[in-house]
Every structure is written in structure tokens, then in C-alpha cells.
Amino acid sequence: xxxxxxxxxxxxxxxxxxxxxxxxxxxxxxxxxxxxxxxxxxxxxxxxxxxxxxxxxxxxxxxxxxxxxxxxxxxxxxxxxxxxxxxxxxxxxxxxxxxxxxxxxxxxxxxxxxxxxxxxxxxxxxxxxxxxxxxxxxxxxxxxxxxxxxxxxxxxxxxxxxxxxxxxxxxxxxxxxxxxxxxxxxxxxxxxxxxxxxxxxxxxxxxxxxxxxxxx
Length: 216
Known about the structure:
Elements: E1 2-10, H1 17-24, E2 28-38, E3 44-52, H2 54-61, E4 66-73, E5 78-84, H3 88-99, E6 103-104, E7 108-110, E8 116-122, H4 124-130, E9 138-147, H5 150-157, H6 161-173, H7 184-191, H8 195-213
Antiparallel strand pairs: 1-8, 1-9, 2-3, 2-7, 3-5, 4-5, 6-8, 7-8
Helix pairs in contact: 6-7, 6-8, 7-8
Protein name: Helix-turn-helix domain-containing protein
InterPro entries: HTH_bacterioopsin, HVO_0513_N, WH-like_DNA-bd_sf
Organism: Halomarina salina
């Protein structure tokens, strides 16, 4: 099996009215999208992981495009289950994945710039064939294409969204090349962070991964 990892960047209308509203709300942060399914009747179901003001989240969900929703408040996040009317763009995108029997590896992660990082699993032929069929309203920024390795993906999923983004930026600027091509400050400029914060994230990443692969 093969996979591709990409960042989905919707146009100004967003993937859905409530998703666009979450993106614009100053007191709400989209963290993860745990699931999204297109149902036989053309409606869709999704499960978000959010943080921020619960009243704002509830106000956004009180939309005519949302048929039903439930909120579960945790200590650090809010889980939203929603049954909604998808836009033509998201319905077309989900139908494309279903038609070609591709698997969306969840959870999907929101980037700092508002894109949605996805990992899609399928045969190489199928993956290549869908690229021209991606809706024009969506930009797909391909990050990686390779053999799907569940163990590597499990390790990656052990990192927090912020750690994953830091690791991606470190790889892109050459921090882990030999010889090293970038510093903490180079990564920090990519992410809008301080060099000290980047260094802390990288130490936690390395501790998590090394602890997981070292025999005990």
C-alpha cells in the first residue's frame, strides 16, 4: 500500500460554513478532525476536537446547516459531534475518496495557517488517478508520497499537533540533514516561534520517539 500526505487548503468559502466560522472565531481553535463521513442521504457527520469558548462553539453550531450536534467538554478540549449539510466541495471530495476506496487516516490535523493535513492510503495507481479530480475550490499541497508503514505512523501520532508541525518544519529546512543545514532560529522563523520554544519542542519529540523505539 502507498500513502500521500498533503495539506488541504480550501478557498475563501472554506470546507463548510461552520468550519469557516470556527477558523474566524478569535476565541476558538480547531485542533483535530477525528472523523468525517458522507452518508447515503447526502448529509455528512463529523467529529471535531476544539479548544476555546464553549458558548462560541455552541453559537456557531446553531446554524441551519447543522441538523444535530453534541458537545463533550474535557479539561483541555471540547469534542464536537455534528450531523450537517455538506457544501458541494466537501461532498465532491468525500465522494472522490469513497469512489476510489481510499482511506483517510484520522485524526486529521489543522495547521497553524488554517490548512488541514491529511494522510490518504491506497494503491499507487489510485492515488495518482485522483489528483486531476480534486475540486478546483481546493488546493492540495503535497508533502510526501511513500510506502505506508503503520508503525512509523503510530510513532508520528504520539506527537502533539504542535510537535508534528515543528518536526515537519525541521525536516523541510534541513535541520536533520548531515551536515546540519539549519538552526533552531531557522525553524522558528518558519513557525513564528522563538528559538528556545523550538528547541523545547524538538527535545520532547526526540524523547518521545527514542523512548518508543528503545528496547526495555
